[in-house]
């Protein structure tokens, strides 16, 4: 049963299978309500305090844009998101202008991206609500606003300082932070590369808030999976009537960030057509909104990021070489979490502390066994995946410490089956060497360990699952040196 404290998300789609798929993905983090038609959706919105509504664009009687325009008029506080396999830029721009959509999620959607987008939307809803309450309660005056802005800027500078990037003393991130701290004060373009979830935006924010632009805006734009015209409209803005659906003037993000920093994420996913226009802006420092015949001077620092190998993209002709050198005056690579396993325990503890405050739930920490398993897992989703795992363990916990049994099956099995599992005796380090008998013994030892951890070292339950007697299980544990106390302190 979903906790009533979870944020409420309404998903509207005429395809039942799509609704079921999204419910399965989201129900761990949100209270998910579904509607197969607009009438049911409006009934839910009128009866339940929904924070976010996600609507499919293509529905039988009405488009998602038209439906969300009605939502904006009747329930303006609800954050509105479109999801669609069709990327007609006219529809999307109309959605931004008329429906005031917060974000567009392309199909097929990625679970991690979907969850992250909704989490950010929920945070925005909470901030809007908090701001409204503060304005009513305090009857904010201009001096109070100024004081609030100063305090928020000081808080942001402190929060995003390089010293607050969590890593171990011997981590390669230490050297990266020291290197970036030296170049942060200077207006030089930085290209941050690394896998998704490694913390590229975290580094980018630290650069901004350590520069002379720290008191000016920091804006971000995800350039991936976005049509050229929509991306241009987002960055450069447009005039009224510039294209079908442009019913009002829009100030672009570049102009909004004047004096500050613009972070262009997933820059490697942009088209050659857009790259030409971005290069022209970087060379001239001027931008021209769509439909306008007048250029505007804009002074921003551009920091970009990608999970692609841009040098390879240049060689393949998918990315302009001149733009690459404009963006990559200082190239910076963030290593994946699997290449800095010493950071895993430190980051996990930091995540736990912050979410104990957010969830109002206190535990003592992780067991050593849980930390060993987390350090052995390869974390393909990097820090973002680790954060989701820690949050899940915290909400599932029913004891003072978070044990390895709370880890999701893929993490637990992955940790126990990886070749670099150093909590087993040395004789089991390599699976690709030795005779068939030796390799089978390695697999058997790892399966035993994973099963015991999952059952909290209850030998009766483990033996029952594996089809062994307690005597037989005990003999195998002695043979392979699988002693709980020894493994927990290794």
From TrEMBL:
Lineage: superkingdom: Bacteria
Annotated GO molecular function terms are: ATP binding; sequence-specific DNA binding
4-aspartylphosphate carried by residues? 56
Q: Where is the Response regulatory domain?
A: 8-122
Q: Give the coiled coil ranges.
A: none
Q: Which PROSITE patterns match?
A: RESPONSE_REGULATORY, SIGMA54_INTERACT_1, SIGMA54_INTERACT_2, SIGMA54_INTERACT_3, SIGMA54_INTERACT_4
The protein, known as: Hydrogenase transcriptional regulatory protein hupR1
Q: What is the lineage of its organism?
A: Bacteria, Pseudomonadati, Pseudomonadota, Gammaproteobacteria, Vibrionales
């Amino acid at each position: 049963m979903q906790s009533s404290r979870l944020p409420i998300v309404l998903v509207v789609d005429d395809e039942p299978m799509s609704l079921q798929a999204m419910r399965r993905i989201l129900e761990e983090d949100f209270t998910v309500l579904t509607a197969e038609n607009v009438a049911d959706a409006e009934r839910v919105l009128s009866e339940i305090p929904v924070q976010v509504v996600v609507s499919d664009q293509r529905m039988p009687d009405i488009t998602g844009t038209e439906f969300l325009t009605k939502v904006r008029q009747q329930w303006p506080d609800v954050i509105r998101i479109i999801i669609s396999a069709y990327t007609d830029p006219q529809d999307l721009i109309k959605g931004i202008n008329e429906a005031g959509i917060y974000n567009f999620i392309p199909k097929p959607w990625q679970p991690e991206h979907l969850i992250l987008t909704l989490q950010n939307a929920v945070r925005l809803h909470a901030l809007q609500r908090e701001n409204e309450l503060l304005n009513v309660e305090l009857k904010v005056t201009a001096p109070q606003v100024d004081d609030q802005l100063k305090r928020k800027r000081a808080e942001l500078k402190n929060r995003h300082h390089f010293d607050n990037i969590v890593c171990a003393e011997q981590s390669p991130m230490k050297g990266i932070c020291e290197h970036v701290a030296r170049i942060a004060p200077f207006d030089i373009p930085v290209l941050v590369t690394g896998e998704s979830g490694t913390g590229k935006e975290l580094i980018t924010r630290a650069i901004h808030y350590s520069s002379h632009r720290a008191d000016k805006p920091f804006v971000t734009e995800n350039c991936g999976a976005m049509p050229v015209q929509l991306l241009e409209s987002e960055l450069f803005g447009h005039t009224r009537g510039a294209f079908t659906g442009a019913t009002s003037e829009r100030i672009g993000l570049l102009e909004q960030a004047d004096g500050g920093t613009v972070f262009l994420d997933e820059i490697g996913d942009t088209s050659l057509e857009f790259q030409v226009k971005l290069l022209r802006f970087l060379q001239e420092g001027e931008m021209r909104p769509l439909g306008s015949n007048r250029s505007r001077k804009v002074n921003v620092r551009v920091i970009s990021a990608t999970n692609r190998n841009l040098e390879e993209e240049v060689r393949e002709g998918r990315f302009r070489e001149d733009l690459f050198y404009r963006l990559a005056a200082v190239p910076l690579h963030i290593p994946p979490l699997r290449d800095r396993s010493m950071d895993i325990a430190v980051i996990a503890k930091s995540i736990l502390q912050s979410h104990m405050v957010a969830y109002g739930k206190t535990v003592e920490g992780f067991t050593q066994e849980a930390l060993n398993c987390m350090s052995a897992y390869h974390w393909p989703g990097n820090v973002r995946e680790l954060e989701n795992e820690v949050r899940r363990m915290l909400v599932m916990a029913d004891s003072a410490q978070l044990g390895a049994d709370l880890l999701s099956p893929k993490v637990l099995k992955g940790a126990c089956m990886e070749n670099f599992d150093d909590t087993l005796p040395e004789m089991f380090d390599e699976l690709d060497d030795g005779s068939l008998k030796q390799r089978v013994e390695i697999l058997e030892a790892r399966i035993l360990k994973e099963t015991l951890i999952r059952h909290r070292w209850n030998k009766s339950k483990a033996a029952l699952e594996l089809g062994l007697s307690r005597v037989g299980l005990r003999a195998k544990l002695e043979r392979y040196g699988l002693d709980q106390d020894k493994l927990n302190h290794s």
